[in-house]
Specification:
The complex is a heterodimer of chains A (609) and B (153). Chain A has 609 residues and is of the alpha+beta class. Chain A contains 18 helices and 18 strands. Helix content of chain A is 49%, strand content 18%. Chain B has 2 helices and 10 strands, in the order E-E-E-E-E-H-E-E-E-E-E-H. In chain B, strand 1 and strand 2 form a beta hairpin. Classes of the chains: A alpha+beta (609), B mainly beta (153).
């Protein structure tokens, strides 16, 4: 296989992955609105594209499978099959399988798959249920306006082979499945065989209709974006960062000249650079839409598994966030959503008994507020029972029996590892892992989770996240000859303690007494084995309160506070505890970004060893 | 003449070494380097390469070769399997074409520290150029240089 072919195939797989996600979304919306012709057309178009291009790049198995899938979808589109829950489940299973194929092929372009079980499943589902959904009758069966007929000969050539093939198959399938049954017994909305043949004549037309739309590009909004790899965006950002540094050098040099013109031009240039930097930064931002829409599926499957009726409402799916952040919130969101459906929403009977609508509601909302991303997962279920939580936590020995907790603290118990209010471990939940994952992942992202709950009215999980991990507000400090950056959100306050605030104590080490609080204070250099020539009374203490225990760190001086671009250290420096990355300071020299709580953790484990 | 037989020759102290030119991304003067605590002595620190942060190692310390006095110091930026690392040498000398048949196997020596990194020798006029397996010389395979457990004074 030559490079070109590989590139072609990889390109297709990228596209297919996108296509299949779209298809899944359509299936889900089809379930809610089974007769929407737009959705049906879109599905058919997507399936058709998938089939066509998978065959074109030489993935024959995928081509064969998607061909069957297309045939199946065509039946739904033509109203031969009702879009029942069963059918949708089959379709979703098929999209899962195609997703599997795609990721399998991405790893190994020669990968082979066993498509037969799914073909059987499709075939099984292709048999129209006689007690088909009532809304099926609303389906516009054969309503082709005459002007579309005129388009037939031209477009027919484009798609006729497969369309004819599809038609032929429908015919055979129809015969095999329907022949045993007397025509009249079939439910009225299933079109009798005679008129079915009529509608089959329309089938190629509908297929060509889709092709026609594609060819004339009647849907221009669809493709106004391009895919760019993250590394290219990062490269761009790196160069812009360098440009900014060079610019400040030029600015210094320009100060020495008398030329007003140069200064003026430079000033304009600064503005432009700033704009360019902002634009480049925004390239990393993507809407939460993709991730949010995946949750439709999670809600559906979870609700089915626990036999509840749950409706998911999505708000603010256009809200943008850094791609890396978005990738990392997928898992926590899945857990939160499942938690809401499984634990939050009551069973339909309980809901009815409590005078609520049998169908539960879960709302997934995203919005920006004061430079942060807020994501809310809200259910209108039973709410959290803090007493029950505390009892359970005592049972599981997570807290001591006599612990006094506020409501909020009790709610936070559900994030404890191993904690679950469920008595029985099911497929969906009960192991007490999920919420622990939520907390850990969100904390890793420098975010937090708040819980609001009202008994009988529901629970809201509020996830607060930084918009990007690429830029942080940093405080640059010096110690000895080196400069370090502390993430600003970790520094609670800075002060220059007087001699009386500091207690030297052999067993506890240095202790800072601050407004009645006693906390350990460490020299920054002690973590690294560095020395500073500064005397204690010239130094500044940073108070850190983000960890489990407050503590303070001595630094020589604070140089300033600024936004810094976070860069990863090379893989040879992986596992450097206490250092989360590095950045390039205004003068072009790199500096390490410190994670104060990890620094102390490391120190503690070391002194314990 | 294909690129495959081109080698970059450089000096460490008074000795001359060569690495395949294809593994070299660029050569530059030694910029300011920010030291990183708790790294081996041959790890000089991190530097800014046009907006990217890359690690810099001192090949002289690593191979236990005494640095030359009064020579300019250069950094060779290596491109090794997708990741970049800087390598400090005393002086970059030339690009040399060396055909495979001109290479001699390294003489059997008693084990020296630099010995295992040498994959062959090339005789240039009056002196020998040692061919380095650079990935091995910098121990790039054991990528994790941080010793979290090491107690520092």
């Amino acid at each position: 296989m030559d490079d070109f072919e590989i590139e072609l195939k990889m390109g297709f797989l990228e596209e297919a992955a996108q296509g299949i996600t779209d298809t899944e979304q359509c299936f889900l919306s089809l379930e809610n609105d089974p007769s929407n012709p737009d959705t049906l057309n879109k599905i058919f178009r997507l399936a058709h594209n998938l089939k066509g291009s998978s065959k074109a790049v030489g993935f024959d198995q995928m081509g064969a499978f998607t061909h069957e899938l297309e045939t199946f979808i065509l039946k739904i589109k033509n109203g031969e099959l009702p879009a029942s829950r069963n059918v949708i489940s089959t379709l979703l299973a098929c999209t899962d399988f195609v997703t599997q194929m795609i990721s399998g092929l991405k790893e190994n372009l020669q990968a082979q798959f066993d498509i037969q079980p799914f073909l059987d499943q499709i075939e099984k589902a292709s048999i129209p249920e006689t007690e088909s959904a009532p809304n099926q009758s609303e389906e516009p069966e054969i309503s082709t306006p005459p002007e579309e007929v005129s388009a037939e000969p031209a477009v027919d050539q484009l798609s006729s082979p497969e369309a004819v093939l599809a038609t032929a198959e429908i015919q055979t399938e129809l015969q095999s499945h329907q022949e045993p049954k007397p025509i009249m017994e079939i439910h009225e909305n299933v079109v009798p065989l005679e008129s079915k043949k009529e509608s089959e004549k329309q089938a190629p037309l509908k297929a060509t209709e889709a092709v026609g739309i594609k060819a004339t590009n009647a849907n221009p909004a669809k493709d106004d974006s391009i895919r760019v790899s993250v590394s290219r965006v990062e490269n761009l950002l790196n160069f812009i960062g360098e440009l900014v540094i060079l610019q400040s050098v030029v600015k210094e040099q320009a100060m020495k000249t008398q030329s007003l013109e140069i200064k003026k031009t430079l000033h304009q240039m600064e503005k432009v650079t700033k704009e360019v930097q902002d634009v480049a930064m925004s390239l990393r931002m993507v809407p939460v839409k993709m991730t949010f829409q995946k949750m439709q599926r999670i809600v559906r499957d979870t609700a089915l598994a626990v036999q509840k009726e749950v409706n998911l409402k999505i708000i603010g799916e256009e809200t943008e966030v850094d791609k890396t952040v978005l990738e990392k919130i997928n898992d926590p969101l899945v857990h939160l959503i499942r938690n809401s459906v499984d634990h939050g929403i009551e069973t339909p009977e309980t809901r009815k008994a409590n005078g609520k609508n049998e169908k539960g509601n879960v709302t997934l909302a995203a919005y920006h507020k004061s430079g942060k991303l807020f994501i809310e997962v809200k259910d209108d279920g039973a709410g959290l029972d803090s007493e029950k939580l505390i009892r359970k936590a005592i049972d599981k020995k997570i807290i001591k029996p006599d612990t006094k907790l506020t409501e909020e603290q009790a709610y936070q118990l559900i994030f404890a590892p191993g904690f679950s209010t469920k008595e029985v471990v099911t497929d969906v939940s009960g192991r007490g892992v999920g919420m622990d994952v939520v907390k850990t992942n969100i904390t890793d992202l420098q975010g937090e989770v708040l819980i609001h709950s009202k008994k009988g009215e529901g629970t809201t999980f509020q996830v607060i996240l930084p918009l990007t991990l690429a830029i942080i507000e940093g405080m640059t400090v010096t110690y000895g000859e080196d400069r370090y950056v502390f993430p600003f959100n970790h520094v609670h306050e800075t002060l220059r303690p007087s001699k009386t605030d500091i207690q030297e104590n052999t067993s506890l080490g240095q202790t800072l007494m601050l407004r009645g609080d006693n906390m350990p204070i460490y020299k920054l250099g002690d973590f690294f084995g560095k020395k500073s020539s500064h005397k204690m009374d010239e130094m500044i203490a940073l108070v850190i309160r983000t960890g489990p225990m407050p503590f303070a760190i001595w630094v020589d001086d604070i140089l300033g506070q600024s936004q810094v671009v976070v860069k990863q250290l090379g893989s040879e420096l992986n596992g450097f505890k206490g250092v989360s990355g590095c950045t390039i300071l205004g003068d072009g020299k790199p500096a390490l970004i410190l994670e104060p709580t990890d620094l102390v953790k490391r120190k503690l484990t070391r002194s314990a060893a | 003449m294909s690129d495959n037989v081109k080698y970059l020759c450089f000096s460490l102290g008074v000795e001359e070494f060569a690495i395949p030119l294809l593994s070299v991304r660029e050569v530059l003067g030694l910029p300011e380097v920010t030291p990183v605590p708790q790294t081996p002595t041959h790890f000089l620190g991190i530097m800014n390469l046009r907006g990217r942060v890359i690690s810099v190692m001192d090949l002289r310390t690593k191979l236990a070769i005494k640095p030359a006095v009064n020579t300019e110091t250069a950094v060779i930026i290596l491109d090794s399997g997708g990741f970049n690392v800087g390598m400090v040498v005393d002086q970059v000398n030339s690009v040399q074409e060396i055909l495979p048949e001109e290479l001699a196997p390294k003489p059997t020596l008693e084990s020296g520290k630099a010995n295992e990194y040498v994959v062959g020798v090339y005789k240039k006029e009056d002196h020998l150029i040692l061919m380095l397996d650079i990935a091995r010389a910098l121990s790039l395979e054991d990528k994790n240089l941080i010793n979290n457990q090491k107690t520092v004074a």
